Amino acid sequence: MRWEKEAETLLKRIPFFVRGRVKKRVEAFVRERGKNVVTKEELLLAKKALREKEAQVEEGFSVEGCFGATGCPNAVTSSLEMLAKIEELLKEAGLTEFLRQKVKGPLKHHHQFRVALSECPNACSQVQIKDVALIGRIKLGLEPEKCVFCGECEKVCEERALVLSESGPVLNEDKCVGCGACIKVCPEGALLELKRGYRVLLGGKLGRHPRLAQEILPLASEEEVLALLKKVVSFYQKHNQQGERLGALFERLGWEKAFEELKK
Ligand code: SF4
Ligand code: SF4
Ligand code: SF4
After folding, report:
1. Structural domain contains residue 212
2. Is the CB of 122 under 6 A from ligand 1?
3. From the CB of 161, is ligand 2 less than 6 Å away?
């Protein structure tokens, strides 16, 4: 494939570490158009077409997890099976087709309905900016009579949610994120897990008007997560205007009212 001088000059403006890849893609584009010379005009056409293609997505939804299920020591939950069920649920709800009709054009990244899950409260997978955020956590219980006052739990709790008093550990539930780190260090079993599940948040997004997802359930089982997700998807499909994100929809209808309806 021959490159005209003007096109070559433009190509040199592209950072060197992606230049080779861009060159190949431009040449493939030009070849597809039955030509064998890259002119400035062809290069600009290729740039526009490749940008548009990159912005497009096949599916109207995405489901992501974190590395927790594959061996992260911080993982509280292990959710590969649940993530597969969530993907199935979104497919069955016909979200891709639904969004295609709503946006009346090719689907782009910012149209996608996004579910993200972190297997512990560290939330590495940026769950708070997704439509549905799931965060693995536990509910902590105390048996202070077993405490030997070693102080290890107080030291390990990054949230300062556990304080050692004269009568044993005292928990501030509002501060506890449910990471379970204190249970691992307690030598006497004075701290225990009462329940394990997911904190569920809804409506996070970036874009022009970014906002973090808001908590709707503090600790839900897998069944409760799936049941809520079904309701959220049908609520989203019922009220959606022009493919707006869930957070924008809550903003328009009122968060409180929307959450009340979803919790029924
Ligand atoms: S969110 Fe937690 S479990 Fe997942 S990768 Fe990060 S630290 Fe590990
Ligand atoms: S579960 Fe985590 S946040 Fe809660 S008290 Fe224990 S160490 Fe602190
Ligand atoms: S780690 Fe266990 S034994 Fe030690 S102070 Fe905390 S609750 Fe008590």
Report:
1. yes
2. yes
3. yes
Residues spanned by the domain of 123: 61-137+196-263
Give me the number of domains the chain comprises.
2
The residue to mutate among 152, 164, 182, having the most atoms of ligand 3 within 8 angstroms of its beta carbon, is 152
For residues 120 and 76, state if they share a domain.
yes
Ligand 1 centre to CA of 122 (Å) is 6
Which of 55, 73, 90 represents a domain boundary (last residue)?
55
State whether residue 40 is helix, strand or coil.
helix
Strand arrangement, sheet containing 113-118: 61-64, 113-118, 132-142, 191-202, 214-220
How many of the other CB atoms lie within 10 Å of CB of 236?
Answer: 22
Span 86-107, pLDDT tens digits: 999 999 999 999 999 998 888 8
Note the pTM of the prediction, 2 decimals: 0.83
